[in-house]
Specification:
By secondary structure, this protein is of the alpha+beta class. Helix content is 23%, strand content 24%.
Length: 275
């Protein structure tokens, strides 16, 4: 275990050679501990795609251009001389939660990471839910959250994304679409209740006034990203980290100016979040 709230590390496993029984064990651990770390892997884009497909069908990838030969793999790249440029994933979020069926799992493989900096921080939304008192739980259970990519991928943000040479992100009007999901969901594999919240994509609540919405957004962001619920991963080349988007959110730290950082990302299709 990596922290009391979230995370586990598996030692000695080769993700490219797991048999069916081992894969079942990995999936069970992933759902229970929400973030699982594998060191010293050598996943090529092809082998990463193949492993990811064993977890489930590939998720749709909007806005971000994928690799030509491997259409489900994103190269997450920031070059050493891009100093102050936007950092992909540099806000607390759950991958593409604005979709009808947000991804279940994300697989991220380290190819070229800085000597220091560029860590990724994860927070457990299961632990965040469990830490709430009964009155707040009752209040939140009935709410529906409005997810949208408008503050991440709408056309007005194209100049921000275009600051990165190593990635091609194409913003368009579909980012303004809205998707309603329950604020409190039941994990489809563990049966645990989860706060399905992230500040990047949750911008409103159904039937809640403007003032109360602002207060709730601030409260939920501060609560769910509390250090009690976190695991901070310091990357090494060859690391593969897999996480459950249904019960976590994460944040890529932009503190490695002067260093190059490249990771490869695949996502696994999920289901409609429900109570």
């Amino acid at each position: 275990m990596l922290t009391g709230a979230v995370g586990a590390e598996v030692v000695g496993a080769d993700l490219g050679a797991l048999d069916g029984h081992a894969l079942v064990d990995v999936r069970r651990l992933l759902c229970e501990r929400e973030v699982v770390v594998f060191r010293d892997q050598s996943l090529s884009p092809r082998s990463q795609s193949e492993f990811s497909d064993r977890l489930g069908p590939s998720a749709e990838v909007p806005f971000v251009e994928t690799m030509i030969d491997f259409p489900h793999v994103i190269r997450v790249v920031k070059e050493a001389d891009e100093g102050a440029a936007f950092n992909f994933g540099g806000a607390w979020h759950s991958d593409f939660s604005f979709q009808v069926e947000p991804p279940s799992f994300t697989v991220l493989a380290a190819v070229d990471v800085p000597q220091w900096g560029g860590d990724t921080v994860f927070a457990s939304m299961t632990a965040a839910w469990m830490a709430l008192g009964p009155q707040m739980r009752e209040r939140l259970t009935s709410l529906e959250a409005v997810h949208t990519a408008r503050d991440a991928y709408s056309r007005r943000l194209q100049p921000l994304h275009s600051g990165m040479r190593g990635m091609n992100i194409i913003c368009d009007d579909s980012a303004n679409d809205e998707r309603v999901h329950p604020l409190v969901t039941v994990h489809p594999e563990t049966g645990k209740e989860v706060l399905f919240f992230n500040r990047a994509y949750v911008r409103d609540f159904v039937g809640v006034g403007v003032e109360e919405t602002a207060e709730l957004l601030d409260f939920l962001h501060n609560h769910t990203t509390d250090v009690r619920f976190q695991y901070r991963h310091r990357w090494r080349n060859g690391d593969v980290v897999i996480w459950d988007n249904r019960s976590t959110q994460h944040f890529a730290i932009n503190d490695y100016a002067g260093f190059r950082r490249e990771l490869h990302r695949t996502t696994v299709r999920g289901s409609i979040p429900s109570r």
